Fold this sequence. Notes:
By secondary structure, the protein is mainly α. The protein has 19 helices and four strands. Helix 4 packs antiparallel against helix 5, helix 8 (232-249) packs antiparallel against helix 14 and helix 14 (412-425) runs antiparallel to helix 17 (467-479). It is globular, with a radius of gyration of 25 Å.
Amino acid sequence: xxxxxxxxxxxxxxxxxxxxxxxxxxxxxxxxxxxxxxxxxxxxxxxxxxxxxxxxxxxxxxxxxxxxxxxxxxxxxxxxxxxxxxxxxxxxxxxxxxxxxxxxxxxxxxxxxxxxxxxxxxxxxxxxxxxxxxxxxxxxxxxxxxxxxxxxxxxxxxxxxxxxxxxxxxxxxxxxxxxxxxxxxxxxxxxxxxxxxxxxxxxxxxxxxxxxxxxxxxxxxxxxxxxxxxxxxxxxxxxxxxxxxxxxxxxxxxxxxxxxxxxxxxxxxxxxxxxxxxxxxxxxxxxxxxxxxxxxxxxxxxxxxxxxxxxxxxxxxxxxxxxxxxxxxxxxxxxxxxxxxxxxxxxxxxxxxxxxxxxxxxxxxxxxxxxxxxxxxxxxxxxxxxxxxxxxxxxxxxxxxxxxxxxxxxxxxxxxxxxxxxxxxxxxxxxxxxxxxxxxxxxxxxxxxxxxxxxxxxxxxxxxxxxxxxxxxxxxxxxxxxxxxxxxxxxxxxxxxxxxxxxxxxxxxxxxxxxxxxxxxxxxxxxxxxxxxxxxxxxxxxxxxxxxxxxxxxxxxxxxxxxxxxxxxxx
Length: 571
């Protein structure tokens, strides 16, 4: 079984490096044993280092979080997502059924007490271990639902190897308990070591986990994925409480740009975020240390993907009204019209003709003209709405092996989590909105949301739900677009149902801009003139199986080895 794959813990090269500080008479001198290792507080810090590699970073062309939303309705990749298309198989995701990192965390929790010293010298490291166990288990629950809960180090003869799966809500309760410990043990960001977990991260992550479980239980209640004994209100309240605690700490703030049309670039295109009050945790990338990354070079191209028409249309106009009702909306005949009088976050998420594309020493070398629709491979933009979020125009930072900082947790999410949890509880007040949603809108000079006077949008994605929930979900979508949150949101809202039978569309195609492209051949366009990339590949649209595909299948090998494991619905 993969969760006992590594019976002997691996302490990694980091631990070998630390052995240099041990007494010189250790025997043998080229190895280090468990009893020898756990002797000083720094041993725990070094042991925890291995888990930081689990955080998503901008480390390559396809694994950057800015491409994570290709599995949602926000982006259109060159090759459609097989899960949305209902083409997953029994082997899909099998490599994810892996408990080895959880075993390593448990090993650390069982051995740190060997270290001589005050607990105050170890508390931060223990908090990190608790956080990472919660982090790894949350990832497994999202993929598989019920999973075995292992709170101790499993060996080859452990009876727990043949336990069945633990109900997802019980696992989540244990995850939240671990996060409570992390919140108690981790220092505030101001006191934490640079680029290490802190109390603010744990509060934010607790709000994320609780919101996910609360909304999953609420919206999947009548589906095969419903939870027996569901108590979604308890989780929603936990999400609201954790996010409000972070807000009340006052140690994190939104970054306020001088120009609302540049704040995404200020945040996502920088190499050093140490002075940015919104960043709860980020990673510095140094090319000279082999930590360069390809994101800027990739964002210069089309990336064989593009924003969806649905995402672009979700941005409000500058009067606070949706495009369906605002007199300010200029239509979508061209990209300039699309962004005119719109929320500034739209023009920062997609490239617009006339925008500086490359700049050197404050001199513009190149302006963006047209999306790369007529390119091929990784250079092509699939939809006509070419991704710009995450891109810096500065030439010195836009090289292939760049050093753009990787954002792991940012404060804006806490504001969105708080507003959504309160709205789902039915207890949202204007004051709640003013300290959350309206803070996000104010920094881009958008009108405040007045929950007593929300204009009806005939194109709301969720007409059966309250106007408050519709607008809060809209705000979440536009603020976190292309950062890797969208699939989680669609899953927990049971909202992938809405995509069945649909194909994602792109921008309106203008033949005069691309005379070499032939509609129906080198580019696919629907009857209304919009780019329709999957017209031939998915003529009937997505075929996501709503009674099966919200969870991945348990690997058949695991079922063969352990008769107490049961399979997920539909598999």
